[in-house]
């Protein structure tokens, strides 16, 4: 009897393992970008604590809300999706909140989001001039909220920004931005002899932050500069 019972348990356990092994894994991908609805340019982000894409898979009584991280260049990709219908929504970003979208994910699906960034950084320029790194730019606010801060960020990593930097120069703005006004921020190379070494290359990036709940910095693209004596 003991042998028969053990054999029964073995067969039952084997059947359960077979069911687990036959469970289908992810079979679809989704990718795209966050685009400025006026300029058509990608809206760049912070890679750490930046905006996310919130998504919910249909077909479940109590579906779990999941999140995708957006790269610093404003693109995203998820290769571990299941073919199904989803609702998706970019959240906690550097743009005016958008509507929820419904999308059918099957095979290789592309979904782009068109948004209104809080701030557009115009005419960005970063150069080394003597012993200083100098950034000049204009700002265009697309909402009535005040621009709270502007910043120049440095890091050896291309993902440099407000949440990833070795050096930063952040300035609070007392008044609303004026597109006709030229802004300037500097980093003194001599003040950072261990972080800005002549002959080596570093990334610099201009950012501006709107005064709004959960807002993130808006950015121009990072610029690679080789420090010269």
Automatic annotation (TrEMBL):
Gene3D superfamilies: 2.60.40.2060, Carboxypeptidase-like, regulatory domain (2.60.40.1120). It comes from the Bacteria. Residues 29-116, 119-221 form the DUF3823 domain. Pfam families: DUF3823 (PF12866), DUF3823_C (PF18003). This is DUF3823 domain-containing protein.
């Amino acid at each position: 009897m003991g042998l028969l019972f053990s054999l029964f348990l073995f067969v039952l356990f084997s059947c359960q393992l077979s069911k687990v092994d036959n469970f289908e894994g992810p079979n679809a991908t989704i990718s795209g970008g966050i685009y400025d609805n006026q300029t058509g340019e990608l809206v760049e982000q912070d890679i750490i604590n930046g905006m996310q894409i919130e998504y919910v898979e249909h077909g479940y009584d109590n579906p779990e809300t999941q999140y995708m991280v957006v790269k610093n260049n404003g693109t995203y990709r998820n290769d571990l999706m299941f073919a199904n219908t989803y609702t998706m929504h970019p959240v906690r970003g550097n743009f005016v909140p958008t509507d929820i979208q419904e999308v059918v994910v099957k095979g290789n699906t592309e979904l782009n989001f068109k948004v209104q960034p809080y701030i557009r950084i115009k005419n960005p320029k970063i150069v080394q001039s003597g012993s200083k790194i100098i950034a000049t730019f204009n700002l265009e606010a697309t909402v009535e909220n005040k621009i709270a801060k502007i910043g120049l960020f440095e890091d050896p990593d291309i993902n440099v920004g407000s949440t990833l930097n070795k050096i930063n120069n952040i300035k609070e703005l007392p008044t609303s931005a004026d597109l006709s006004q030229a802004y300037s921020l500097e980093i003194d190379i001599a003040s950072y002899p261990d972080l800005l070494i002549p002959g080596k290359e570093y990334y610099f990036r201009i950012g501006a932050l709107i005064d709004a709940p959960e807002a993130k910095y808006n950015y121009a693209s990072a610029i690679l500069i080789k420090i010269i004596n």
